[in-house]
Amino acid sequence: MTDFRGDTAAPTASPTQQSSRLPFTKGHGTGNDFVLTLDPEGEAPTDAAFVAALCDRHRGIGADGYIRAVRSSALPEGRALLQTDPAAEWFMDYRNGDGSVSEMCGNGVRVFAHFLLTRSAAELPEGGELAIGTRGGVKRVTRSGDGYAVDMGPWEFIVPDAAVARGMDSLVAIGGLDVDRPALSISMGNPHTVVALAEQTELDRTELHRAPAVRPLPPEGTNVELVVPADPLVGEDGVGRLTMRVHERGVGETQSCGTGACAAAAATRFWAGEGAPAQWLVTVPGGVVGVTFFDGPEGREHVQLSGPAVLVAEGILLPGA
Ligand SMILES: N[C@@H](CCC[C@H](N)C(=O)O)C(=O)O
């Protein structure tokens, strides 16, 4: 006989800590979706249970991440940035769907900029830039086509010696694939581990509902990108192309990851060696983002990420919902 006791169990997730009505906006960048709130004084709740309940797709609003738009002057991390970059009036306080904090979110920062502009909390004149504080430093956003482009700053190897000597620093066990794969870990402010697969059929049969096991795991954990480089890698237009799926730290498989696309392009470009292009298009389940490498003002190589930002709804989260 079937035991239905499990069906009557009390819901485990509820945004309980929140005692007043919280206005929110829902948005996404290539299907990577976020709940945003305008919170100038940094008063909206941030505890992990609240964020996880808010981002729950069945009992909450549902999202990959939660973003508070806080004045930099209202947060210690923001005040530190203002000392060297007074233009960064707003700080993107980003949390993953499980409530953990992340240093940076590439899709999130475009949606954040669009949110601030739509709410008239910031201005971005044609040809100008908007400076946004993040835990990964100040990011500069400009308009680009129908969306936005962001100077994501320099990329870095997480284990430089191994990367340069062997082109890999770890092994990754991935659901659906028999053999562990070599991988290269890259920081975009937040950690990424990139695995190249030989063909699309391999990428399709990969199971990403469980986190791939990375050995050794970078100290802060990691986001895992599986990439299939196009064949030929570079089109007649001189642009490199990749297809990518991602398992995000603190979330699970998502439709897209902006910092992940930057890391995937950086790893593939490194593997391709001399003559690899500066411009890349990365196809993710939720769309396509552009990645361009350029010389930054301080003489290091920077990454620019471009793509759309869409706001889809506004609402009010009820107390104790
Ligand atoms: N989806 C984001 C990255 C969000 C943070 C990530 N899960 C982490 O924990 O580092 C992006 O678009 O970059």
TrEMBL record:
Residues 11-22 have a biased composition (Polar residues). GO terms for molecular function: diaminopimelate epimerase activity. The record marks 192, 248 as: Could be important to modulate the pK values of the two catalytic cysteine residues. One of its GO terms (cellular component) is cytosol. It is found in: Cytoplasm. Pathway: Amino-acid biosynthesis; L-lysine biosynthesis via DAP pathway; DL-2,6-diaminopimelate from LL-2,6-diaminopimelate: step 1/1. Its main location: cytoplasm. Residues 1-26 are annotated as: Disordered. Keywords: Amino-acid biosynthesis, Cytoplasm, Isomerase, Lysine biosynthesis. One of its GO terms (biological process) is lysine biosynthetic process via diaminopimelate. The active site is at residues 105, 257. It comes from the Bacteria. It is an enzyme of class 5 (isomerase). It catalyses: (2S,6S)-2,6-diaminopimelate = meso-2,6-diaminopimelate. Its EC number is 5.1.1.7. PROSITE patterns: DAP_EPIMERASE. Substrate binds at residues 32, 96, 106-107, 190, 223, 248-249, 258-259. Pfam families: DAP_epimerase. Belongs to the diaminopimelate epimerase family. Homodimer. Catalyzes the stereoinversion of LL-2,6-diaminopimelate (L,L-DAP) to meso-diaminopimelate (meso-DAP), a precursor of L-lysine and an essential component of the bacterial peptidoglycan. This is Diaminopimelate epimerase. It comes from Arthrobacter cheniae. The lineage of its organism: Bacteria, Bacillati, Actinomycetota, Actinomycetes, Micrococcales.
